[in-house]
Amino acid sequence: MADQERLVRTLIEMIKIDSPSGEEDAMDREVSSRLAALGLKVSHDSYNNVIASLPGQGQPVMLSAHLDTVEPGRGIKPVIDGGVLRSDGSTILGGDCKAGVAIVLEALTAALEPGGSNRAIEVVFTRHEEGGLVGAHHLDFSMIKSKEGIVFDGEGPPNRICVSAPSQNVVTATITGRAAHAGLEPEKGISALIIAAEILGRLPLGRIDEETTANIGRLEGGLKRNIIPEQAFLDGEFRSRDNEKLADVERKFRSVFDEVASRYREAKIDLEIVNTYQAYHVAADSQAVATIGRALAGMGLEPILESTGGGSDANVFIEKGITAIPVGIGVRDFHTTWETAVISEVLLGAQMCEAVIRGT
Ligand SMILES: [Zn+2]
Q1: How far apart are CA 193 and CA 200, in angstroms?
Q2: Catalytic residue check, 18
Q3: Among 116, 178, 218, 331, which residue's Cβ finds the most Cβ atoms within 10 Å?
């Protein structure tokens, strides 16, 4: 049976291993040796994502989490404070996604105690999920047989199941005007920052509708107080759970850039819009939802099916034909220095995962 003390110990040990995106080797070594000790066959694909399998009954189910964290995430000092785990305030906690990793490890430990039986399991721990789902995009899907699964990477308790998530397009633009001395010959300059400001002022931004958002998160430009700024750089994104609306926002973005460019013919505007992941919608009566629902029912919990505005590895898994859906891992305030993990909810996650592994 999932054990709270052992689970919290594992979670704290995982949190104390630094693993900002791109630096997952130490986490990889730790989880690989733990999975092997539990009797799983541990492999890596060419991107060094961890793929481990355990024989058992029926079609395999995939249990997934990611090994990396956002910054500031080095030298994290987790403290237990009234049933909640938090950092000392100078870093994130890293509950995203260490709670997901700890849930899977504790559930396997509990479910594989002697005398029980289990479903066939595939564990997938990806690298570099934060900032682009990079590990999932590089995952060797030929090594995975599961058609359904669970991504332990959501906010709140484990009965929060995310059945719908948006597509995301990333927008970058480089604007090149002309430098000139601001005091001696300003009329010879073309300010890239003014062009960027005109574009920013016209773009549809913020919450566009219930399932569509857009943001320019970074504007950089200029060199010195007394030089007309020659270069500006915009970095942003837009998302929608409806791909037609996504295409509509893209058209509006392009027409704003074109319209402003047409008034500054001597400037150069390079715009790039790239899709980073695809939206998904999982039916409430799908097998993956039923698997999680059965496990929750045994614990007296009702599933809550939700839509999100965020992306996760699930977007890539589902696009590749594995209906793996995110559930809550007991963590709140992802990506902040006040991030917390509610211990009772992390335990519920491990209990749910254990029930899935047992096939009960
Ligand atoms: Zn995460």
Answers
A1: 10
A2: no
A3: 331
